[in-house]
Design brief:
Strand content: under 5%
Structural class: mainly alpha
Number of helices: 6
Helix content: over 70%
Shape: elongated
Radius of gyration: 17 Å
Number of strands: 0
Order of helices and strands: HHHHHH
Length: about 150
């Protein structure tokens, strides 16, 4: 089960890297000053940092098989999940507004008025969230000793 959690975590991270890269490339950091992006940079980078640290801890756990590391990784995943839900809550209105803003944002220079997170493909957002839930559950089950390690 620990390897299954590792695989889901890595695939989840790939989707997260894609969204982070898209957000940065589309001006998410610059949009913090104007309020165009609804995703606070501190939440975005906090989510990324804690998830990356947790993944490293999980990799060490898989190699060392120390239960304290499994629980540490799980403990790191809890705020990662919370920050993920915060970002989802901020992203949903941006996604819903895409049609009305698309019509208004077709002129020259309009790209800066479109939130960077609008460019996230829905399938990536949904897959990232579902895989994150699966990862959280697999890490918890592993930490509890369900299915052996």
């Amino acid at each position: 089960m620990d390897i299954a959690a590792l695989i889901t975590w890595v695939v989840t991270a790939l989707g997260g890297f894609y969204m982070l890269g898209t957000w940065i490339q589309r001006g998410g950091i610059r949009q913090q000053q104007t309020g165009t992006s609804r995703l606070p940079a501190s939440v975005v980078f906090g989510h990324f940092t804690l998830a990356a640290i947790g993944l490293v801890v999980w990799i060490i756990y898989v190699a060392a098989d120390k239960s304290a590391l499994a629980w540490t990784a799980f403990g790191l995943l809890l705020p990662v999940a919370l920050l993920g839900f915060v970002m989802l809550a901020h992203w949903i209105p941006v996604y819903r507004d895409r049609v009305s803003v698309r019509a208004a944002a077709t002129g020259p220079g309009a790209e800066g008025t479109v939130p960077a997170e609008r460019h996230f493909p829905v399938v990536v957002v949904v897959a990232h969230g579902l895989l994150a839930v699966a990862t959280l559950l697999l890490v918890l089950l592993t930490a509890l000793g369900v299915g052996g390690s």
